[in-house]
Amino acid sequence: MSRDTKQLLLTAIVVIAAFAVVFFLSSFVEAARPKLPPEYADSDLSLEGKRLKGYALGSEGLLADWYWILSLQYIGGKFVDSDKETIDLGDLRSLNPRLLYPYLDNATDLDPKFYAAYSYGAIVLPAIDTQQAIALTEKGIRNNPNKWRLQQYLGYIYWRQKDYEKAAETYEAGSKIEGAPQFMREMAAGMRARGGSRDIARAIYTQLLTESEDEQSKRNAQLRLQQLSAEEEIEAVNGVLASTKSSTGRCPSKLSEIFPQLMKIKLSQDADFRIDRSNSLVDPSGVLYVLSSETCTVALGKDSKIPRTAE
Q1: N or C end: fewer C-beta atoms under 10 angstroms in the chain?
Q2: Cβ(251)–Cβ(245) under 8 Å?
Q3: Which of 88, 162, 175 shows the shortest CA–CA distance to 130?
Q4: Is the entire prediction scored with pTM above 0.90?
C-alpha cells in the first residue's frame, strides 16, 4: 500500500470517526433535552455541515448525501408523528417542518450540483414557505444554468402564487435552454392566456408526476390531479342536480337517478364518471361521493384522501 493511499485511508477513518462522535453526542443531547412545545422543537440544526466546506477533505459529496437523506426522513417523520386525521399537502405549515430548508440548504452548499435536492425542495417547500422555495430554486438555477427543469419548478412556484406573468417569464427563460421541450414554450403562452385555468393546472401536475424523482413528489402530483378531476365532476353533478330540482321541484334521493344525464356530459380528457359495483358514484380515489338532501349538492366523502382545498 502506497504512502498516499495510507494517508487517504487514515483521513477517511478520521472523518468517519469524527462524524460518529458528533452523531453520538447529538443523539445524547437530543435524548436528554426536555420536551419543548411543537413551535420550538425544531429551532436549530445540531450541526451545520456547510461550515465544513473546504475543510472536509473531499467528503463534501458524502455530507451532502447525508443531509439529503435527513431531509427525506424529516418530512416522513412529521407525517408519521402528526395526530391530524387529514393533512393538506398544499399547506404543510401545521406540521412545523422548519428544518427542511436548512437541511436542503446545507446539502446544496456542500454540493452545488445536487439536482435532486433542488427539485425536491422546489416541490415541497412551497407548501411550507414560498420565499424559501424560491430562494433554493434560484440557487439551483445559478449553480446549474443548463438544467431547464429547475426553471420549470420555479415557474410552478410562481404559478402557485398566482403570479402568472412571472411564471410565464420563467417558463419562457427555461424554454431557451438547450434540450428544453416544447412544453416549456406552451406553458409560457398558456400562463399569460389562462394561468388560473384547470387545464393549465392539470398540465403542470401531469408533467411533475412524470418527471419527479422522489415518491413523495409523485404522490403529491397524483393527489392534485385527482383533486382537479373531483372538482370538475362535482361541478357537473351539482349542475345536473340543480337542473333536476328546478324542473321536478324536488332533489333526487340518490345519485343513480341522474346517471342518464351524467352520461351525456363530456369531462376533460374524455374521462368518464366512475360507478362502482353497488351502482354508486365514486370519486377518483374510489370513495363514494356524499349527497346532501338539504343543499341538494354532492361533496367528497369523509374517507376520501383527495385534498379538499384548491390551490
Answers
A1: N
A2: yes
A3: 162
A4: no
